[in-house]
Design brief:
The protein has 218 residues and is α+β, with helices and mostly antiparallel strands. It has helices at 47-53, 94-105, 163-172, 178-187, 202-217; strands spanning 2-3, 6-12, 23-30, 39-41, 59-62, 65-78, 82-89, 110-122, 129-142. The chain folds into two domains: 2-142, no CATH class; 163-217, no CATH class. Strands 1, 2, 3, 4, 5, 6, 7, 8 and 9 form a nine-stranded mixed β-sheet that branches. The two termini are 26 Å apart.
């Protein structure tokens, strides 16, 4: 999404990575991954901005609203994968308590960066835009993510997803309806009444298997 006040793009995190005290960590952006806006953030894009501001200089907001400060960023850094963040919701603030409940329930599962583009290049061959340098000024907890591949790595239980988590993955990453996802979880893929797309059910099954593989290895 692009706005006159700057630009924004979001990444989904998992509710299981949110701790009861309001702390959470994950990736607000992944390098080299095309998002739904056809943008690709390149390694080093945040380096100058982070050197200038530091983690505490980047605001932790709710839904990009300037008057909805809900916590602080304790750590923001680039690594080989992307922009790693570790935040703390301020539970003395009523809105932060509400957001914490939504995050832990999985009702809100997005992180969105607010930034200005300093340097970018457009790939004329495929139409993607490579973000070389951006000025990062806020990261928000949001409802709708743009980068489905990003996931939080904290608080893994035993590496096995819950039934609810797997259902959500089937809907968000494999494109199944809620009813179909529940049928797959409870009775298996073959229990679906009819193939979901032309050419048989192989493609839909492949999508489900890819979603499961990403969930188990994320």
């Amino acid at each position: 999404m692009r706005t006159t006040a700057g630009e924004r793009k979001a990444a989904r995190f998992e509710a299981k990575a949110v701790k009861a005290d309001g702390s959470f960590e994950g990736y607000a952006s992944l390098f080299g991954t095309e998002d739904l806006g056809r943008d690709v953030v390149m390694p080093g894009a945040f380096r100058k901005s982070l050197l200038k501001r530091g983690a505490r200089g980047v605001k932790l907001l709710y839904q990009h609203e300037p008057n909805e400060v809900i916590g602080t960023w304790e750590e923001i850094k680039e690594d080989a994968r992307g922009l790693f963040v570790r935040g703390q919701l301020l539970t003395d603030v009523m809105r932060a308590r509400e957001v914490l409940a939504l995050m832990r329930a999985g009702a809100v599962d997005g992180l969105s960066i607010g930034y200005h583009v300093v340097k970018a290049e457009t790939d004329r061959a495929n139409g993607t835009r490579r973000l070389i340098e951006v000025d990062l000024w806020e990261i928000s907890v949001v409802t709708f993510p743009m980068l489905p591949a990003a996931r939080v790595s904290a608080v893994k239980r035993d590496g096995r997803p819950t039934t609810r988590e797997f259902e959500r993955w089937l809907m968000q990453d494999a494109g199944f309806s809620r009813t179909e996802a529940r049928t797959i979880v409870q009775r298996g893929f073959k229990a679906l009444p009819v193939p979901r797309e032309a050419g048989g059910g192989d493609q839909a099954l492949a999508r489900a298997l890819r979603a499961a593989a990403r969930l188990f290895t994320s």
